């Protein structure tokens, strides 16, 4: 095992990730009030998502969507390989992880949007919009649980602490075997 490390996650990606975790915890804790805190946290989340989308277009290699967003075939192939115990190790997100990031970003954005819409004249007091907001908020928790499970599985399979890498920004480099 090498002790060499390579930079993978830049400071913005790491700050975004952990800030989003904390902010989502905050909106869940304030869902029943105080309403002003819940709404303001939601606005901060919406701003963070917008910044992450921009960073996904202009940021460094592993922050860019082009580095990890794949179609259904590569995602399903990765999941089949994982099930068979022969999945590749990636420096950035693997195809399934990339799909999870997109799902989480869209779900969090949708939750923020439906929360904001409830403050507009068109949807003030709309039980349908409130229901959609709550379903999306619950979906965030489901996806976050699957995300954590995926991180744990990949950490164990590849003998790499992925939580630590999201704190430090570094991972061990790809080996020749990883490149096959």
Notes on the structure:
By secondary structure, this protein is mostly helical. 70% of the residues lie in helices and 2% in strands. It is built from eight helices and two strands, in the order E-H-H-H-H-H-H-H-E-H. The chain has a two-stranded antiparallel sheet with strand order 1-2. Helix 1 (11-29) packs antiparallel against helix 2 (35-58), helix 4 crosses helix 5 (95-117) and helix 5 (95-117) packs antiparallel against helix 6 (127-158). It is elongated, with a radius of gyration of 18 Å. It starts with 5 loop residues before the first strand and ends with a helix. The mean pLDDT is 95.
Task: Based on Cα principal axes, name the global outline.
Answer: elongated
Query: What about the largest sheet?
Result: 2 strands, antiparallel
How many H/I helical runs? 8
How much strand content do the residues show? under 5%
Number of strands: 2
Structural class: mainly alpha
Radius of gyration from the CA trace? 18 Å
The stretches of 5 or more residues where confidence is low (pLDDT under 50) are none
Estimate the helix proportion, in percent: over 70%
Straight-line N-to-C gap: 18 Å
The neighbouring-strand order within the major sheet is 1-2
- Helices and strands, in order, run as EHHHHHHHEH
Mean residue pLDDT: 95
